[in-house]
Amino acid sequence: MLDFIHLIFKVLTISMRFEPSNAKYFNVEVGWESITTVLRLTGAFTDNVTVKVDEKEWTLDSAELKQQLAACHSVFKMDEAIQLGSIPSGTANHSDQYQVIALGMPASIFVSCYLVRLLFNMSLDNYEKMASDVTWSAVDSSLEDCIVSWTSSILVHPGAVLSILTLLPGIQSEEIKWTVAAQYYCALLLKALFKPERTQQIMCQVEGIH
């Protein structure tokens, strides 16, 4: 299923890149709320609309979540060549996949992180470019300081950012520690997205962001 979702995101993004009328049609006739709803209906996200912080795991600091955050980061660092939409197996031969496998990431968390990564790619129009300037930080670096950076890319689809923000509370696992880590990681991703002043200016013009 993830194969098809990945393909759909690519087709949507690339079709809007080269034909402005497609982008206008998408925004008017389809809308980002529909994308958010469809992703929720896949079962990858729950119906939660607020982050519930009453569990004791929310009192953990980032050092105590280091392994879980590193695994989430590994999902986002998977490059396009291997991002085929399947949950990594024990025969994986890529370091980022090994990271996910070794730390026992629940399938629900992997799928949620994978779909958020697709939304991130779409937000920056980062599919199938000749040279991408998006750079993911090393797993052993301080993720709280910098998860991802880019030089010339700008926010193209602010609606994708709103989808990430809306779906974040729906990232859930029976293992609360993984839920906390994945939601926190996605919050750090949003922080990185909002860091450029140009992004802040674009988001201020989006209806419903206030």
Question: How is this structure best described in words?
Answer:
There is one protein chain. This protein has one domain. It is built from nine helices and two strands. It has helices at 2-18, 20-30, 32-41, 66-77, 95-102, 107-123, 158-167, 176-194, 197-204, and strands at residues 135-136, 148-149. Strands 1-2 form a two-stranded antiparallel ribbon. Helix 1 packs across helix 2 (20-30). The longest helix is centred in the C-terminal third of the chain and has 19 residues, at 176-194.
Structure at a glance:
This protein has a two-stranded antiparallel ribbon with strand order 1-2. Helices cover 53% and strands 2% of the residues. The chain has helices at 2-18, 20-30, 32-41, 66-77, 95-102, 107-123, 158-167, 176-194, 197-204; strands spanning 135-136, 148-149.
Reconstruct the topology from this structure:
Blueprint: H1 2-18, H2 20-30, H3 32-41, H4 66-77, H5 95-102, H6 107-123, E1 135-136, E2 148-149, H7 158-167, H8 176-194, H9 197-204
Antiparallel strand pairs: 1-2
Helix pairs in contact: 1-2, 1-6, 3-7, 4-5, 4-8, 6-7
- Number of domains as seen in the coordinates: 1
Structural class determined from secondary elements: mainly alpha
* Overall pLDDT: 83
Order of helices and strands: HHHHHHEEHHH
Q: How many angstroms does the end-to-end distance come to?
A: 34 Å
Strand content: under 5%
Major beta sheet summary: 2 strands, antiparallel
Strands ordered across the widest β-sheet: 1-2
Count of distinct strands: 2
Mind telling me the C-alpha Rg? 17 Å
Low-confidence stretches: 81-93
Spatial shape: globular
The DSSP helix count reads: 9
- Percent range of helical residues: 40-55%
